[in-house]
Design goal:
The protein is of the alpha/beta class. The protein is built from 12 helices and 17 strands. The protein folds into 2 domains: 270 residues, Spore Coat Polysaccharide Biosynthesis Protein SpsA, Chain A, CATH 3.90.550; 86 residues, no CATH class. A 5-stranded mixed barrel has the order 6-9-7-8-10.
Length: 367
C-alpha cells in the first residue's frame, strides 16, 4: 500500500496498571517498565508504530502525572502531541479526544489506535495487517478492529465473534462483519469459542477515520460528543486547556461499551502477529528466555544478582541485593526498594488480591 499522508497514531498511556504489582504501581505503571530488554514497553510500542507513521504524527494520550515521563522517554514526539488527561475517564473519552486532536491537524485524519503496554513479536506481520486496516478505513465509512487470532482459551481477554465474510484483502487477509462481544469468559466457554474458529481476542486495536468516529459518537454517545464539540474548532495549547471542564462533565465508559458493541459499521481483520497484553507475571515468565533450569532472572540494571541452588522454573526480578533460592520451584519473586513479593507462578492473577487488600487498609504508599 502506498504511504497515506493522512494516517496518525493515537497511543493510550494513562493507565496505572496493577497486575504487575509491585513493579507496576500508580507512580510507575506497566508502560514505563523495562521487562523485555533495554527499552520500556512504551518505547517499544512507539518504535513499532514508527514503521507505520512518522514521529510527528504520533499522539500520546496520558495522565497529567505521567506527562514528564512520556516527554523524557519520547523526545522525538512533538511536545504538543502529548495530551494530558486531567482525570481518568476510561477509553471512550481518551480515544475520542485523541481522534479530535488528529482531526485538528488534518480533517481527513485516519487514526490507528493502540495501547502503549502490549507486546508484538512479529512486527512485519503487524505492519502488514495495520496497513490493510488503514486501507479499509480510508476507503469507506467502516471502523476496523483488529481481532487477535487466539492461541489458547484465555479467560483474561474479551472475545469478538465475527459474522459473515465481507471480502478478501491482500495476501490471505480477510474482512468480516462483527456479530458480538463477550467479556472475559470462563475456561469452558473460552474453549468452546475457540473451537468454532469464529472468535478473536479483543485487543482494543482500532483503525477509523475521524469522520467515522464522530458519526458513531453522534449516534451512540451524543452527550459525550456534545461535551467535546469545542475541540473540533481548537488547535495547539488551547486544545488541552479545554480538557478539565470536558472531563469533569463526561462519563467514564470504555470504547467497547460506548461504541464498538453498538456500531453497525464495525468490521474485523484477524491479526496473527504474536500479540500479548502482558497481563501478569506468569506471562512475563512465558515471554522471556529461560536458563537451563527453566528460570528467568531479570533486573532493571546490570546483571540480576541471583544465587540459585536446585531451583527450577522460577521468575525473579531482582533489585540489586542478592536473592538466594534453594529448592524453590514455580515461584515468582519480585524485589523492589519497598516491597518483596513472593507468589506461586500459577497464582499470578491473585496479585490483584494484594492490591485490593492494600486499598481496603488504605496503605496507599504501596499502591
Amino acid at each position: 500500500m502506498p504511504h497515506n499522508e493522512h494516517v496518525y497514531a493515537v497511543l493510550l498511556a494513562g493507565g496505572g496498571g496493577t497486575r504487575l504489582w509491585p513493579k507496576s504501581r500508580e507512580k510507575t505503571p506497566k508502560q514505563f517498565l523495562k521487562l523485555f530488554g533495554n527499552e520500556t514497553m512504551l518505547q517499544y510500542t512507539v518504535h513499532r508504530i514508527t514503521k507505520l507513521v512518522p514521529w510527528e504524527k504520533i499522539i500520546v494520550v496520558t495522565n497529567m502525572k505521567y506527562q514528564s515521563e512520556v516527554l523524557k522517554e519520547l523526545p522525538k514526539i512533538p511536545k504538543e502531541n502529548i495530551i494530558s488527561e486531567p482525570e481518568k475517564k476510561d477509553t471512550a473519552l481518551a480515544m475520542l479526544v485523541g481522534t479530535l486532536y488528529a482531526r485538528s491537524l488534518d480533517k481527513d485524519a485516519i487514526i490507528i489506535n493502540s495501547a502503549s503496554d502490549h507486546v508484538v513479536s512479529d512486527e512485519t506481520e503487524f505492519v502488514r495487517v495495520m496497513r490493510a486496516a488503514v486501507q479499509v478505513a480510508a476507503g469507506n465509512e467502516s471502523m476496523v478492529t483488529v481481532g487477535i487470532t487466539p492461541t489458547h482459551p484465555a479467560t483474561g481477554f474479551g472475545y469478538i465473534k465475527i459474522g459473515h465474510d465481507l471480502t478478501k484483502l491482500e495476501k490471505g487477509l480477510s474482512l468480516f462483519s462483527v456479530d458480538s462481544f463477550t467479556e472475559k469468559p470462563n475456561q469452558a466457554t473460552a474453549r468452546a469459542f475457540i473451537s468454532t474458529g469464529r472468535y478473536f481476542w479483543n485487543a482494543n486495536m482500532y483503525v477509523w477515520s475521524s469522520t467515522a468516529l464522530i458519526n458513531a459518537f453522534a449516534k451512540h454517545m451524543p452527550e459525550m460528543l456534545h461535551q467535546t464539540e469545542r475541540l473540533t474548532e481548537t488547535k495547539g495549547t488551547a486544545f488541552v486547556e479545554l480538557l478539565p471542564k470536558i472531563y469533569a462533565k463526561s462519563e467514564a465508559i470504555s470504547i467497547d461499551y460506548a461504541i464498538s458493541e453498538k456500531a453497525e459499521n464495525l468490521v474485523l481483520i484477524p491479526g496473527d502477529f504474536g500479540w500479548n497484553d502482558v497481563g501478569d507475571w506468569k506471562v512475563v515468565y512465558e515471554l522471556e528466555k529461560r536458563d537451563v533450569d527453566g528460570n528467568v532472572f531479570l533486573s532493571d540494571s546490570n546483571e540480576p544478582n541471583v544465587l540459585s541452588i536446585g531451583s527450577t522454573d522460577n521468575l525473579v526480578h531482582a533489585n540489586g541485593r542478592l536473592v538466594a533460592l534453594v529448592g524453590i520451584k514455580d515461584m515468582v519473586v519480585i524485589d523492589t526498594n519497598e516491597i518483596l513479593m513472593i507468589i506461586p507462578k500459577n497464582q499470578s492473577q491473585d496479585v490483584k488480591k494484594i492490591v485490593e487488600r492494600l486499598k481496603e487498609e488504605k496503605q496507599v504508599e504501596y499502591l
